[in-house]
């Protein structure tokens, strides 16, 4: 199963994967229905989660129903338990929206929700995150998860996200972080897919973020909280929900 997941992720372009997953999701849910794991996003339980990862696939990472990963389930639990996101009137910008979230967020009456991406077939607005077609201070909340590691000029993307966020607004900007690195590792001369996979962990990544990721966000204007939110749960709860204990949830604010 691990080798099949690895092959699919590395061989099939992301837009095709999105369309394929939409078609197969109902059948996969039936196949994996059980009681050992629970996805907090849809409340359904499974006998196992699917493996996922471009390098060495992680076991029990991908929920069969929502296609959520560990980071998505952590974010959902944070929004549910620690914010008023599901109650308060918010204008939301979601960059490269995850399938686990997009349909659910669109249905919430309290949200004025807009999704954007340059390539995704399921978004409202096709746009480059380094040059967003929105007025200054247009949104109350911004989500941009696992996007910045794909973008050469990530500082410009961060500045754009800061520009369109209203004062007093907040957001979640997740990226892959290697905490063993003090400084982000990037080398834009590496363009070969196999070399990028070797250096950055994935064929379409241009960097590994280090602990200075939060400094980069602050240079763009944000104040930042680096939360280990999964640690709020017991070991048994983390296993049940499929959470990673040491995954960082970067929450940003515009003061």
In N-to-C order, the SSE pattern is HHEEEEHEHEEEHEEHEHEHE
Query: Any idea what the radius of gyration is?
Result: 18 Å
Shape: globular
Give the termini separation: 46 Å
Short description:
33% of the residues lie in helices and 23% in strands.
Textual characterization of the structure:
The protein is built from eight helices and 13 strands. The chain is an alpha/beta fold. Strands 7-6-5-8-9-13-12 form a seven-stranded mixed sheet, with helices on both faces. Residues 4-9 have low confidence and may be disordered.
Q: Layout of SSEs?
A:
Blueprint: H1 2-11, H2 14-32, E1 33-38, E2 45-46, E3 50-52, E4 58-62, H3 70-82, E5 90-95, H4 99-106, E6 111-117, E7 125-126, E8 139-144, H5 154-164, E9 165-172, E10 185-186, H6 193-200, E11 207-208, H7 213-219, E12 223-227, H8 235-241, E13 249-253
Parallel strand pairs: 5-6, 5-8, 6-7, 8-9
Antiparallel strand pairs: 1-2, 3-4, 9-13, 10-11, 12-13
Relevant terms:
33% helix; two-stranded antiparallel sheet; single chain; 8 helices; alpha/beta; 255 residues; 7-stranded mixed beta sheet
């Amino acid at each position: 199963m691990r080798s099949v997941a690895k092959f699919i992720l590395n061989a099939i372009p992301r837009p095709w994967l999105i369309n394929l997953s939409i078609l197969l999701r109902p059948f996969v849910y039936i196949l994996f229905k059980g009681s050992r794991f629970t996805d907090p996003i849809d409340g359904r339980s499974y006998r196992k989660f699917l493996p996922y990862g471009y390098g060495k696939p992680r076991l029990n990472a991908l929920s069969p129903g929502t296609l959520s990963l560990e980071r998505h389930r952590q974010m959902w639990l944070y929004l549910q338990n620690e914010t008023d996101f599901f109650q308060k009137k918010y204008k939301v910008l979601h960059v490269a929206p995850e399938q686990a979230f997009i349909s659910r967020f669109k249905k919430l009456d309290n949200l004025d929700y807009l999704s954007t991406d340059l390539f995704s077939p399921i978004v409202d607005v096709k746009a480059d995150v380094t040059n967003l077609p929105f007025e200054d201070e247009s949104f109350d909340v911004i989500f941009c998860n696992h996007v910045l590691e794909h973008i050469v000029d990530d500082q410009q993307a961060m500045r754009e996200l800061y520009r369109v966020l209203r004062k007093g607004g907040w957001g979640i900007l997740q990226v892959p972080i290697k905490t063993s690195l003090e400084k982000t590792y990037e080398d834009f001369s590496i363009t070969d897919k196999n070399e990028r996979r070797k250096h950055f962990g994935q064929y379409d990544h241009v960097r590994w973020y280090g602990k200075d990721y939060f400094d980069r966000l602050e240079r763009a204007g944000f104040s930042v909280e680096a939360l280990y939110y999964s640690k709020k749960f017991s070991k048994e709860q983390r296993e049940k929900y499929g959470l990673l204990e040491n995954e960082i949830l970067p929450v940003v604010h515009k003061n």
